[in-house]
Amino acid sequence: MISIDIKNSGSYTVKIGNGLLDTAGDEVKKLGKTRKVCIVTDTHVSALYGQRVRESLESAGFDVFSFIFPFGEQSKNLSVYGRLVEDLCNNRFTRSDLIVALGGGVVGDLAGFAAATFQRGIRYIQVPTTLLAAVDSSVGGKTAVDLTGGKNQVGCFYQPSLVLCDPDTLKTLPDEEYRCGCAEVIKYAILKSRAFYNELMDLPASEQFEHVIATCVEMKRDFVQEDEFDKGVRMFLNLGHSIGHAVEALSGFTTLHGQAVAIGTAAVARAAEKNGFCSTDTLGDILTILEKYGLPTENPYSAKDIIDLMLSDKKLIDGKLSLIVPEEIGKCRIVPVDSGDLGKWVL
Ligand SMILES: NC(=O)c1ccc[n+]([C@@H]2O[C@H](COP(=O)([O-])OP(=O)(O)OC[C@H]3O[C@@H](n4cnc5c(N)ncnc54)[C@H](O)[C@@H]3O)[C@@H](O)[C@H]2O)c1
Hints:
The chain folds into 2 domains: 2-171, Rossmann fold (3-Layer(aba) Sandwich); 175-344, Dehydroquinate synthase-like, alpha domain. The chain has 12 helices and 11 strands. The chain has helices at 24-30, 43-59, 78-90, 105-117, 131-137, 175-192, 194-202, 209-226, 241-250, 257-274, 280-292, 303-310; strands spanning 2-6, 12-16, 36-42, 63-69, 98-103, 123-128, 142-147, 150-157, 162-165, 320-328, 331-338. α4 links the parallel β5 and β6. Nicotinamide-adenine-dinucleotide is lined by residues 42, 44-45, 48, 71-73, 76, 103-107, 109, 129-130, 132-133, 136-137, 140, 142, 151-152, 169-170, 172-173, 177, 180, 257.
């Protein structure tokens, strides 16, 4: 088992190890005074792991409730959020009780936002079951739900009390979801480490889950400890995301987040090479690893459509968008781009 401590406004530990799912009850007990626990999860994950987590919590003596919603991004909305907090209220949850977010990023974001806002904040733990959630969304305390007008439009920063990651759960992930998680894993390698890039080239992530998750969480820890509220270095984690979010939206969300991030990463790498920020070899390395992991690298949309959407990005500040631009594997740079110059970056 690997333990990584994260020191933010709320400090917590990320525990990574096969079989940890069955320790959920004991782990929650260690967090102190709690009587009731609500497992928040989606229909897929509930069918696979809901019972195991419930049994672990019950045998540790907790009064266990479940809130299960239909899987998928379309559930990350105000109406499901509303039902969840009403449920907590009807079951007389108090500030000493706790939420277990069991699932991928959709569950984590929604349950985290409910935890942050119910009675002005009750504790929650993240139990990520997708690769994306394990390496990214379960760490750092960003919580949110979507509005019809856009993704993650309502949310806040609210740190979990614990992240319990059992890589065994990733074995049941559909191949497409695994690959989407790999897009985020590859992002960390491009941002921070040539050695990690080489490891991912030598051995598939699926054959070294524990190591891969721990490496990514350590990298994310460094960004979020320095910049909890996303005003500085945390922006690096947006590599591939500015164009990626536009691709996701243009596809009507049929292109999955990780696929869109891969397309965005490839697009910004091509522009970086053209604009003299990185070598042709670096561009080649980026495209090679994305393709090796079965991720798309071609942007099917027009530059105009992509730019129109980028201009409504919530990260556009004073008419400038900070693009994360690769210089070499393991090194990227923040480049503030004037909205009028985006054409040079979306080819
Ligand atoms: N908070 C953050 O910092 C942050 C960072 C990145 C992404 N996100 C958010 O995360 C969400 C995407 O997360 P995701 O990719 O995990 O999507 P997801 O939660 O929808 O999970 C993807 C699919 O996999 C299923 N699933 C989950 N675990 C499984 C398992 N072990 N076996 C089989 N099926 C399983 C789910 O039911 C779902 O159908 C987006 O809403 C995005 O905005 C948040």
